[in-house]
Design brief:
Length: 338
Amino acid sequence: MKPSHGIFLMKTSSLFAFLLALLLAPRPAPAAEAGAAPAVVTKEADLMVIILKPEAEQRLRLKVVPLERRAVPATRLLAGEVVTPLAADGARLAPVLGGTLDETLRMADQQAVADGRLRQAQVQVDAAKLALERAQKMRQAEAGSARVEDEARAALALAATALTTAQAQRELLGAPVTGTGAVQRCWVRVAIYSGEAARLDAQAAVTIRTLTGGDAGQSAKPVAGPPTANAQTATVDWYFELPAGAGWRVGERVAVEIPLRDSVAERLVVPASAVLHDIHGGQWVYEQTAAHTYTRRRIQVERLAGDLAVLGSGPAAGSKLVTDGAAELFGTEFMTGK
């Protein structure tokens, strides 16, 4: 081997050793630029612990409440559909118009057929009246018989009966589908499994929420709707009336929370403002474990009861949880806050 080649190998090995030592050397801690950090984030048992300085805690204006165990009525969460009742208030049967195009076209077709029968019955009544008047005049002029007059009177009675029937059938179909003058009322139609219907309180008001469940919900009272059901799915339909100006669209799918009969259980509840959601759908709260120390705890929200979140799992009762300022703690932990 040539001497120059050996010298080159020695230089290369020395350079490699120097670079390796430089990479493995511990890095010096960065100097504080503007004093100590207002919050220290550490990882302990796979849960994030945030230690705040007193001045940072005052700026965040954190509010801490104890986790309580309360008696909360048990409910069932079911899916519903916003529909429009077309019959007048107080009608014995109140057909509804759903939000799908097929239901709209089917109702419009039924109304058109009923309108045609109603006009036909009215024409028959008018013709029967003219026939009766003609028969009466002919009899007075001694040009007709009593039998002809009786037959005309019977024909008028039959036509009047047909008109009454046509009017009743048309009234059952409600206001015209194309009518825009009247303010639309909104109902919610809920398909309930027949085997569970006896456990639900049919007279209690329910809570209507969006499918995301992030809103407080609106109360809806039960109403007597048409006795509709589906034998294939073994379900019966219940109807609930939304308040005026509720803002729901016909055909919109909603979540309906129906109370159970005589079923009240003690559950862990926390204000809904204390619950946080991560990007994976996980649910968390911040628990104050020591002075100025807050630990993120995983929970599972079972349902919402007004402004409270009913927990299926979470910390023990009496734990101090953060409500106001929880989002700021979340941002501090993930470096998204100010």
